[in-house]
Every structure is written in C-alpha cells, then in structure tokens.
Amino acid sequence: MKKIIIFLGAPGSGKGTQAETIVKKYDYLHISTGEMLRAFAKNEYIKEDEKKALEAMKEGHLVPDWLIFRLAFKEIEKAFNENRGMVLDGAIRTLAQAEGYQEFFKKNGMADEIIVIEIMIDDEEAFKRLTRRKICKNCQQVYPNLEVKIIPEKCTKCGGELGMRLDDDERIAHNRITEQGSALINPLHKFYKEHEQLYLVDGKKHMEEVEKEIDHILLNT
Ligand code: AMP
Predict the structure, then answer these.
(1) For residues 162 and 138, what is the distance between their CA atoms, to the nearest angstrom?
(2) Does ligand 1 have an atom closer than 6 angstroms to the CB of 63?
C-alpha cells in the first residue's frame, strides 16, 4: 500500500469521513488542512500575517498557499519521522500547491509513494450536503445528513452538542462550492492524471460502498 494517500473532492464529498476510516484501519496520520487551520486560528501566539491570511477562511475562500505549506509540511515530516503513512485530506487545492507538494515529496524520496483518489460529486450535491450536515461542537465529529442516515440528537462519540459548522452557512457554503467545487478540482484532476497517480471513485454511492472501492484501490496499487 502506498504511503501517501491524497484525497481530492469538493467540500462535502466525504474526504474527511473516508480519511478517518483509513486512519483507523491502517494507523495512517490524518492531515486535514481544514482541521489544522481551525485549530491554528485558536492559537494565541499567531503572527499578524497569519491572522490576516486566515481571514479568507471565514468567507469560504482559500487561504494562501504559503500558510498551507507551512502547516502541512511540518505534519508530513512528522509522519516521515515516525515512518507512518499519511492521508492528505483537502490539503491540495491549487495547482501551485499540487506542484509544491510534488516537489516536497520528491525531495524526500517519496515520489513513488503517492496515490491520488478523487471522490467525485457534482457541485449541487456538494452544496446540499454541506448545508444539511451537522458537527459536534465539542469533538468536531461530522454527521452527514444522507437520506439513509438520521442525525442523532447528541454526538455518539463524546455526547457533545451538535450544530452547524460556521462556514456551512448557505452563503458561505455557496462561496466554497463555487471556488472549491468542480472549478478547483478539474485542473488538479488533469495534473494528477498526467502524473499517472489518479484514481476515481463515485462519491454519490453509499459511504460503505465508497469505502470498499477505496480499499480495493489501495490494496491493489
Ligand atoms: P475544509 O474543512 O477542508 O472544508 O476546509 C475549510 C476551509 O479551510 C476552506 O474553506 C479553506 O478556506 C481553508 N482550506 C483548507 N485547506 C486548504 C488548502 N489546501 N488551501 C487553501 N485553503 C484551504
């Protein structure tokens, strides 16, 4: 199994959920830049330029590439040092980022360890999912509101209260899908196809079905 699993997909495509499954099954390190940025924003020692860079996030826009590299490369190095595999969840969202990561992995002798899995959903479905899901306000566990599943009253993991993620608000979710949906995925799709690292999964299938397909890809590459 490859050591570096990169998930591509619109917000709400299920990248985080599928990443968690891999982390549990194979003890890979979960590198979610969204989670990292939210945690980083709470840090009281944050520098002025970083604070300014984080502003974009509140409105559903992308934060600058330099901040992503600064946060993500540190985590990736941790995985290298521990000799663990890793799942990059939403960590690559611009062509400059794709190139930057590719270069970084090459420099670390890991270029052959990359596999990219795109979880495909259309923008309309992505918007529906973002504005209908809930998260635990305490442990951030996500509760997707898929037709087959009913969201529980309280978090089943920690008993915390469930609510909406601030950037899942309709207006901001709209910004996110417009900027980070198919318009963002298409050039990345092309980039990784050219690098022969890309595998596709239909994200509209049931979560368990998507998980099976991903496992099949991971265990056969
Ligand atoms: P997520 O939790 O993955 O939906 O990410 C939440 C927000 O964090 C996004 O709407 C962006 O503002 C920001 N973000 C996360 N990852 C990246 C990235 N790789 N590049 C730029 N911005 C990002």
Answers:
(1) 8
(2) yes
Q: Which of 3, 84, 132, 165 is catalytic?
A: 165
70 is catalytic: no
Contacts of 218 (CB under 8 A, 6+ apart): 1, 2, 5, 22, 115
| CA 141/CA 133 separation, integer angstroms | 11
**214 alpha carbon – ligand 1 mean position (Å):** 23
What confidence tens digit (pLDDT) does each residue in 69-88 have? 999 999 999 999 999 999 99
Count the alpha carbons within 13 Å of 59 in the hemisphere toward its beta carbon: 7
Helix (H, G, I), strand (E, B) or coil at 143: strand
State the Cα–Cα distance between residues 169 and 167, nearest whole angstrom.
Answer: 5
Joined tokens for residue 169: 């608000």
* pTM flag (> 0.90): yes
Tokens of 91: 């960590």
